[in-house]
Design goal:
Blueprint: H1 13-16, H2 20-26, E1 38-40, E2 43-46, E3 49-53, H3 66-79, H4 94-106, E4 111-115, H5 118-129, E5 135-139, H6 144-152, E6 156-160, H7 165-174, E7 181-186, H8 198-208, E8 211-215, H9 230-234, E9 242-246, E10 256-260, H10 262-271, H11 273-276, H12 283-298, H13 300-319, E11 331-337, H14 339-351, E12 354-355, E13 357-359, E14 369-374, H15 381-398
Parallel strand pairs: 3-12, 5-6, 5-7, 7-8, 8-9
Antiparallel strand pairs: 1-2, 2-3, 4-10, 9-10, 11-14, 13-14
Helix pairs in contact: 3-12, 4-12, 5-6, 7-8, 13-15
């Protein structure tokens, strides 16, 4: 291993002084970058031991579906391992255009644009649309990719308190209505599990003549009669201007998209830097998403199973006395409070064979740390009950029940 030259570089002092993660590692409470050696849908192997995966966004359990794997393998052989260029130049495949057509039809929009990641989709939509003199209104709990898109844009970003539509209305009333403006929110908020008040947001968007976008990363495949997300859930698809989403949750791959009116998508194709300057989504991923979308549409029983498991887990945790906050979805935040307590509980559950995600600052306030549990359609009742048994044991041992 090469040795570094000892130099006094001011830029790196903050790196030298950053010790929090190393302290957690030394205490055996470091939960991040844990290598998974093998995955069997709802069970993963880590260090030779099996864990029930209750921290995945694989809501419909499609990452191991035979049709998805077969489609990805066939595309890998036909198109190769990568596109080696951006969509703008040499990287557009017929598979990309097919997927865009399928998504537009599924979400009942005119057109669609596929990105290489879900993060880039939000980054590209917000930064691509909001120019100098224009405004984007953000819920304070919007995903980081939305916030970063606002930073990358040349416009003004105005934040409102989570779900506070009265506060949003007050802010909308103050802006210059001759300027272009966008309100963008998560459809399902990833750390709370609550659903955006889309009817109220539509009312405000129409009242003030602003565009409305919804990030349906955690809604596609989960909400709506056909799994088409938050707008379908409320029957407001025609009233939402842009639907953004990702392939890394219910659609079992990686990538992202935006759907909307054709002229808006056409503009983004030529003005969204995160899409123009990034290599295109590989064929294997694209084909896998197409297959996953087909399964999503043809097997509604998976969504029913997801909700059955969700209710079983939520009811069980609440009966044990745990505080789950305002969740309405398969995202189940188990509110603990202090960070150290949260990490200790995570470790005990992990050692007992249950994989959850601890959420600590800066993702949440210091006093609102939590374990993020998420359910899948393919969890068995026995696996859900096993998870509940371990939560019960930890609760009795540490007295962490609400």
């Amino acid at each position: 291993m090469a040795t570094s030259v000892s130099r006094n570089i001011a830029l790196f002092e903050k790196c030298r002084n950053y010790t929090k993660a190393r302290e957690a590692q030394a205490a055996g409470l470091y939960p991040y970058f844990t290598p998974i050696h093998e995955s069997e849908d709802t069970v993963v192997k880590i260090g030779g031991k099996s864990k029930v995966m209750m921290g995945s966004n694989n809501y419909l359990g499609l990452t191991h579906h035979p049709k998805v794997l077969e489609a990805a393998e066939a595309a890998l052989k036909k198109y190769g391992s990568g596109c080696t260029g951006s969509r703008f130049l040499n990287g557009t495949l017929d598979l990309h255009e097919k997927l865009e057509a399928e998504l537009a039809e599924f979400l009942n929009k005119e057109s669609c644009l596929v990105f290489s990641t879900g993060y880039q989709a939000n980054l590209g939509v917000v930064s691509g649309l909001i120019g100098r003199g224009e405004v984007v209104f953000l819920d304070k709990l919007d995903h980081a990719s939305i916030m970063d898109g606002a930073k990358l844009s040349f416009g003004e970003a105005v934040r409102f308190n989570h779900g506070d539509l009265q506060g949003l209305e007050s802010k909308l009333a103050q802006y210059d209505r001759s300027k272009g403006a966008l309100v963008i929110v998560d459809g399902v908020f990833s750390m709370e599990g609550d659903i955006a008040d889309l009817p109220g947001l539509v009312r405000l968007a129409q009242k003030f003549g602003v565009a409305l976008a919804v990030d349906d990363a955690h809604s596609i495949g989960v909400l709506g009669p056909t799994g088409a997300g938050t707008a379908e859930h409320f029957g407001l698809t025609a009233d939402v201007d842009l639907i953004v989403g990702t392939f890394s949750k219910s659609l079992a791959s990686i990538g992202g998209f935006v759907c909307g009116d054709e002229y808006v998508i056409h503009y983004l194709k030529h003005n969204s830097r995160p899409m123009i300057f990034t290599a295109a989504l590989p064929a294997s991923n694209t084909a896998g998403v197409l297959a996953a979308l087909e399964v999503l549409r043809s097997e509604p029983e998976r969504r029913a199973a997801l909700w059955e498991n969700t209710r079983r887990m939520q009811d069980g945790l609440r009966s044990l006395g745990y505080d789950l906050g305002p969740t309405e979805t398969p995202i189940i935040p188990v509110l603990i409070g202090p960070m150290v307590d949260t990490l200790v509980i995570w470790r005990k559950l992990f050692d007992a064979g249950v994989f959850t995600n601890p959420v600590v600052p800066p993702a949440v306030p210091a006093e609102a740390c939590r374990l993020r549990v998420s359910l899948m359609a393919t969890h068995t009742k026995e696996q859900v009950d096993f998870g509940l048994e371990q939560f019960a044991k930890v609760g009795r041992e540490l007295g962490v029940k609400a």
